[in-house]
Amino acid sequence: MVFGTLFAFPGDHPRSIGILAVAKANNLDLRVIDEPRIPEHLEVSRLGKVPAFHGEDGLKLFECIAIAIHANTPLVTLQNDKTTLLGQTKQDYVHILKWMSFFNTEIIIPMVEQYLPLTGIRPYNKDTVTTYAKMTQAAVDVVEEHLTKQTFLVGEDLTLADIFCAGIIAFGFQFFYGRSWREANPNVSRWYQDIVNQPMYSAVTRKVELLEEPKLINVAPSKKAETLEMCTDAAPPGEGVSAVE
Description:
The chain has helices spanning about 15-25, 40-45, 65-75, 90-120, 125-145, 160-175, 180-185, 185-195, 200, and strands at about 1-5, 30-35, 50-55, 60. It has about 240 residues and is α+β, with helices and mostly antiparallel strands. A 4-stranded mixed β-sheet has the order 2-1-3-4, with helices on one face. Helix 1 links the parallel strand 1 (about 1-5) and strand 2. Helix 4 packs antiparallel against helix 5. It starts with a strand and ends in a 43-residue tail after the last helix.
């Protein structure tokens, strides 16, 4: 039986990776439509936000954290004692939500604002890009410190927070985080490489290639790319942008 339909961008979209990973791990038959803003999608999310979900039971959801939690609820309903994806205690669960929210706001939003001018999607301003880069790094510094004594974001086992948040910060490793950055941020880099090599994660994404040098640096783009890659959850009308590869 089909669990529902996920509306997403093509490719490895940061806000969809965790949803796809959990759905696959739970053996949920999730139909994926990677053509945003079609009428069926707009019935679920009037703003055309990606991802969005329409369940076979009629449930309509937008906002990626809500969808990721819903995709994991069958494990809870079945009282599967072996799962730790939602934590082992109520405190674990709220910490999982905390980190998912943190990555989904404090990291991906300024990172995208850093990305857009460097690819010609928005007008370039060096100072603006620098500001957003510093905002992103300030948030990553919080994670770096937290992971000093932690293997995973929450508790002693892999949780939904790890899968979801690795998908979010993957955007940085795709475009910005070269070898020198990884050496300066060893805890986040170690955690990220550990999570993306988890079978649950790698089953729904392409192989991750770490950068020697950043693909994007703070210089004006020579021209607007013919094919734009974007990780925002609501694509501007008429842009025709695709997801992160």
